[in-house]
Amino acid sequence: MIEEPYRWVEAISNRREYIEHQIEGGSPIACLGYKDGILFLTLSRERQKIFEIYDRIAMGAIGHPGDIERLRMAAIEVTSTEGFTRSAQDVSLRRLANYSLSPVLKAAFEQVYGAPYLARMIFAELGRGDDPNLFVRIDYDGSIHSNGGPLSRISENFGVISGTALSMSLMEKFLKQQDCSNLNLEGALGVALDAWTVGHLTAGKDALDELPSAEVIAVHRKEQLATTIIEAAVLEHTSSLPITYRPLSRKDLEVFQKGD
């Protein structure tokens, strides 16, 4: 019995290593605030990675498709129920993350005889009025990271997820060097594509371990755009509807999809 706590710690460590290995190949997702709202962007070949959750909340995820779908549906159910029983104004990303998704993920991860969720998620909530946008990353173990730091320290107007900690760190480093607050959609798409490229270059076995140069980013971005499809969506301040989520059309992305 004395050895049990040590066996549990070892099991948790092995579980973490296994999950990290499973998700390390996931296509990065860049999420950033711009003049008219919030942009989500990734590049992929098949499965959808960006989703609408509620009026002002959207989600991106990497990992096992089945686990992502279960977590997406759980998020939709929680926010829709709260919006119905209270009001749309009461629905918040903070409550969704802290009281619903994080506890579920934490419990599944720490119960070593059950299956954990193989998923890493990034959520964004469009700020109301002068309130700042909120970006929250939730990991497979239930840990929460907000706007590049603790929930109480909102600063950066962006969020990212990728398959490795190094890749996410370098994507954040790149975005900290950008000022997107006054960019239009086309400008924001360009920055998000470069942030995605940084993430893709710095994840995996043969990854770079430092921020790549602008020339390296440009070459790799062009190569990847030739073989993958841009998936992007926005939460727009300018929407005339309560629902601010809008998937970007082929026309919105045409100039970038050509690799220009």
In short:
The protein is α+β, with helices and mostly antiparallel strands and 260 residues long. The chain has helices spanning 4-23, 65-85, 93-110, 165-176, 185-201, 214-225, 250-257; strands at 29-34, 37-44, 50-54, 57-63, 119-125, 134-138, 144-146, 158-161, 229-236, 245-247. The model is unreliable at 148-152 (pLDDT under 50).
Question: What's the name of the CATH homologous superfamily?
Answer: Aminohydrolase, N-terminal nucleophile (Ntn) domain
Percentage of residues assigned to helices: 40-55%
CATH architecture label name: 4-Layer Sandwich
Total of DSSP H or I helical runs spanning 4+ residues:
7
Strand order of the largest sheet: 8-1-2-9-10
The total beta strand count reads 10
* Low-pLDDT segments, ≥5 res: 148-152
- Total number of distinct structural domains: 1
The overall pLDDT, averaged over residues, is 90
The top level CATH class name: Alpha Beta
- How much beta, percentage-wise? 15-25%
| Structural class estimated from helices and strands | alpha+beta
Distance between the termini: 63 Å
Computed over alpha carbons, the radius of gyration is 18 Å
